[in-house]
C-alpha cells in the first residue's frame, strides 16, 4: 500500500497489521496550504515505480488529516487514470468532507469518470455530527472491495 507522508496513522497501521508492505511518499503543499498536485503525482509515480512488491492500494485523505490541505476535482480524475494505468485500487477517506472553510466544497472521487472501477470512499458520521467515539460510518464504491470489507466486518462484529 502507498500512503502520503504525513498521514493519519491508521492509514498505515491497517495495512501493516495485515502484513502488507507500506510505501510512503512526501506530501507537498503550496503557499496556500493546498496539495501541490503536480508534485503529488510525480512523487506517487516514483514510489509506485520503486515499490516491491507491486502496489495494490493507494490511500488518500482530503481534506487531509493532519494538515487540512485540499485538492481539486481534477486531482481525482488524474488519480483514477493513474490507478487504471498502474493497476491499483484507491481508498479515499473523506472523514472531514463537511468541515471546510471559505466556500470550499470537498470533491468526491466518484466525480471522476471510471472511479467505481478502482475506488472506494470512506465516510464517518463522528466528525460532521459531533459523535466522537461512536465509530459509525460507511463505505461506498467498488463492489469487490466493499464486499471484502462486508465479509470481514460480518465476522468481527457478529452479535454486536
TrEMBL record:
Residues 2-154 form the Aminotransferase class I/classII large domain. Coiled coil: none annotated. The keyword Magnesium does not apply. InterPro entries: Aminotransferase_I/II_large, LL-DAP_aminotransferase, PyrdxlP-dep_Trfase, PyrdxlP-dep_Trfase_major. SUPFAM superfamilies: PLP-dependent transferases. Keywords: Aminotransferase, Transferase. Its cofactor is pyridoxal 5'-phosphate. This is Alanine transaminase. It comes from Aliarcobacter cryaerophilus. The lineage of its organism: Bacteria, Pseudomonadati, Campylobacterota, Epsilonproteobacteria, Campylobacterales.
Amino acid at each position: 500500500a502507498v500512503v502520503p507522508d504525513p498521514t493519519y496513522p491508521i492509514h498505515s497501521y491497517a495495512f501493516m497489521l495485515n502484513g502488507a508492505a507500506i510505501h510512503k511518499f512526501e506530501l507537498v503543499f503550496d503557499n496556500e496550504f493546498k496539495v501541490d498536485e503536480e508534485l503529488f503525482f510525480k512523487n506517487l509515480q516514483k514510489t509506485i515505480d520503486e515499490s516491491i512488491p507491486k502496489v495494490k492500494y493507494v490511500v488518500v485523505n482530503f481534506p487531509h488529516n493532519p494538515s487540512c490541505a485540499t485538492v481539486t476535482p481534477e486531482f481525482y480524475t488524474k488519480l483514477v487514470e493513474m490507478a487504471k494505468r498502474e493497476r491499483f485500487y484507491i481508498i479515499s477517506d473523506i472523514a472531514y468532507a463537511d468541515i471546510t472553510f471559505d466556500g470550499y466544497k470537498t470533491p468526491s472521487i466518484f466525480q471522476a469518470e471510471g472511479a467505481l472501477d478502482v475506488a472506494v470512499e470512506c465516510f464517518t458520521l463522528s466528525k460532521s455530527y459531533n459523535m466522537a467515539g461512536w465509530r459509525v460510518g460507511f463505505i461506498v464504491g467498488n463492489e469487490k472491495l466493499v464486499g471484502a470489507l462486508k465479509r470481514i466486518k460480518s465476522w468481527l462484529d457478529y452479535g454486536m
